[in-house]
Amino acid sequence: MNMPVLERDVQGKSKLSFVDCDIHPVQRSDKDLHPYLSARWREHMDNFGGHIRQGLIGQVMHPRMMAAGQRADAYPQRGGPPGSDLELMQKQHLDFNGCEIGMLVALARGGMEERNLDFSAALSTACNDWQLHDWVEKDRRLKAGIVVPQEYAEHAVKEIDRRAQDPAFRQVIISPKSSEPLGRRRYWPIYEAAERNNLVLGLHPAGISGGNASSGTGWGTYYMQEHYTFGTTTTGNLISMIVEGVFEQFPRLKVALIESGFTWAPALGWRMDKHWARMRKETPHLKRPPSEYLREHFWFCTQPMEEPETPGHLTEIIDWIGWDRIMFSSDYPHWDFDDPKYALNFKMTDAQRAGILRDNAKALYKLA
Amino acid sequence: MKLPYQGAIDCDVHVTVPSSAALVPHLDDFWADHLTNRHIDRFPLTLTGNAPNLPISARADWRPAKGLPGSDFDMLRTQVLDNFGLRYAICNVMHGAIALFNADMAAALIKAVNRYVAREWLDRDPRLRGSILVPLQDIDHAVAEIERWAPDKRFVQCLFPVMGDQPLGHRRYWPVFAAAEKHGLPIAVHAGSTFRQAPSGSGWPSYHLEDYLMQSMAFEDTLVSFLTEGVFQKFPGTKLVFAEAGFTWLPTLLWRNNKVWRGARTEVPWIDRPPAEIIREHVRFTLQPVDAPDGAMLNRIFDHVGSDKLVLFSTDYPHPHFEGDDALPDGLSDDMIRRILIDNPLETYPRLREGADAGAAHSTKEAVP
């Protein structure tokens, strides 16, 4: 919610020491990528720019709420969008809240949904260089995610292999607004490369308003409505990955679901199991009930934290999912940012809290 | 577990028109000619999700020796009405005409389908109730179809597929909700797709299993559509029945919409109270499929959604969801069982409350338009 920072309780300065699994760095403008692009692509960027499946340039067709979906207080004084200023990020969040490690999810200008595949390749490499030089090297608390264009698997694999040995990169980020559901075989080379390199696959909802309609029912009217489809699209991708047998093919692959919530997971497991059992012969490649793949291969970030009417229900659901699977995330600097001091206001033991705030992410991403 | 007593109300039973040729006598000459000359009558107009060879299309002992699942009246009477000792069964006919692009052809066929249901099913057993299948391709046709059947009190609701051209709460559909509200007819949204778009935001899956699983996502998005578009404020008498939707996804939807509403409420100022409250008041879910491992977990879900009024008994005959006569999950309280079997359906359907008189009024064929 947009509440001025100054109203926050000053006691927040006490160090919580947490791992934040979802921080969004943003370029101030195209120019931030120029040092990392060849002349050919700088010129292309200037003369043609991005070509994505969206009806408006630079804006989404379901406009976001206050301040374009950002925290109103996160606009840097020196200019540029929220998330583009490391100093402000440190002041407002990393230092202020006591962030020990921050996982960067660089959604902007990474070429993830760029239709010109050669351009997407150049952008992803440039975006990864930018994360490294402009962020990780300047604040050692930060870790990057390898941005790859999921529609250009050949380049995605090369980019993963290029970065895999650099401990600055801890996961592979792909867009769930893909041309096909993510379980489809065209994406398998990406999973092979991630698994081979022991890299987590990070899925984060993408909010472009083009491509496939955001729902099987068609496009929604309101942002509040569209927002919900980030969840159902994630569900669809999970169903696809599990039912297509991605986890039979890549048994060591681990997936982090970032900004998708988690309370829906047990019910999805039950539903998948029930109907898989009724249609079992269609998918002989699945050796186990779908819920087992869900249980073993997925981790869930907390933001946006669900707020049941009875807080105890959240505790119950995490009991079903497993306390080792939940990882704190803030989604800084978005408007629905979860504050680590307040977001986990439901019953848990100290060990469970430590797990969510820190230890589960450290184990998954192999962070020191 | 088996139903502990007679008198339950089955809110989702499938009847199937046995062939398109069977509809031809119910069409006017123009459309009869189209159907026969173009050989459209040689295909059954079966939705993809209802393909009869799919294992989910019929339980083995509910599959007729000949003909499409759900097309045998005597089997329905014996296996469902008599076997479960039902007071009423609501017939949902998910006919493929809803998927056609030609709105006039669809409307003509759907009128014939509804007439077929009235004559060949409702007329033959006073326990049967019907759902008005609606041609949503053209809203004027849709309203006309509702107006046509509303006087026949045996039709207790309107029937839509969950995946059509646009999210169902969209304003283009509002004349339909106005008509439904006027006549006190709940709106049944049933699993099924007209394949206007991919079932997920990331496109088209590979397996039938995925198509089926993805139906619940469409129900979630549909519910959010009705909520955010303000249908429940504009048409406060609206009752939605989500049929064959599963419902264990509901807690997350309530919680997430309560939360997002607080930040987005300026965009949807007609939402004047927490979404969870609105949904609990206006939306119901048929029992099958029970997407939970057992009754104990189901009880947890009822606690999470904060209501015991939401679920309406159904067998979803002839689709296979349970073995033998075990139409109810184990572990439900007597009170919950009674709510599901009888009270919740009666509270949802005004025309069922009006009672058995409705059957007597239409015992002659002349009464059927």
What would your notes on this structure say?
- The complex is a heterodimer of chains A (368) and B (369).
- Chain A is of the alpha/beta class.
- Chain A has twelve helices and eight strands.
- Chain A has helices at residues 39-47, 66-69, 86-97, 117-136, 153-163, 188-196, 223-243, 246-249, 265-278, 290-297, 312-321, 350-365; strands spanning 18-23, 99-104, 142-147, 169-174, 200-203, 255-257, 298-301, 326-327.
- In chain A, strands 1-2-3-4-5-6-7-8 form an eight-stranded parallel β-sheet, sandwiched between helices.
- The two termini of chain A are 32 Å apart.
- Chain B is an alpha/beta fold.
- In chain B, α3 runs parallel beside α4 and α4 runs parallel beside α5 (174-182).
- Chain B is globular, with a radius of gyration of 20 Å.
- The model of chain B is unreliable at 356-368 (pLDDT under 50).
- The interface between A and B is large, with 67 and 73 residues.
Main traits of this protein?
heterodimer; A: 368 residues; alpha/beta; eight-stranded parallel sheet; 12 helices; globular; B: 369 residues; 8 strands; 38% helix; disordered C terminus
What radius of gyration of chain B results from the CA coordinates?
20 Å
Order of helices and strands of chain B: EHHEHEHEHEHHEHHEHEHHH
Number of E-type strands of chain A? 8
Low-confidence stretches of chain A: 5-14
Mean pLDDT of chain A comes to 92
Low-confidence stretches of chain B: 356-368
How far apart, in Å, are the first and last alpha carbons of chain A?
Answer: 32 Å
Report the total helices of chain A: 12
The N- and C-terminal alpha carbons of chain B lie at a distance of 41 Å
Strand residues, percent of chain A: 5-15%
Residues in helices of chain B, as a percent range: 25-40%
Cα-atom radius of gyration of chain A: 20 Å
Largest sheet of chain B: 8 strands, parallel
Secondary structural class of chain B: alpha/beta
Helix/strand class of chain A? alpha/beta
Q: Write out the strand line-up for the largest beta sheet of chain A, numbering strands in chain order.
A: 1-2-3-4-5-6-7-8
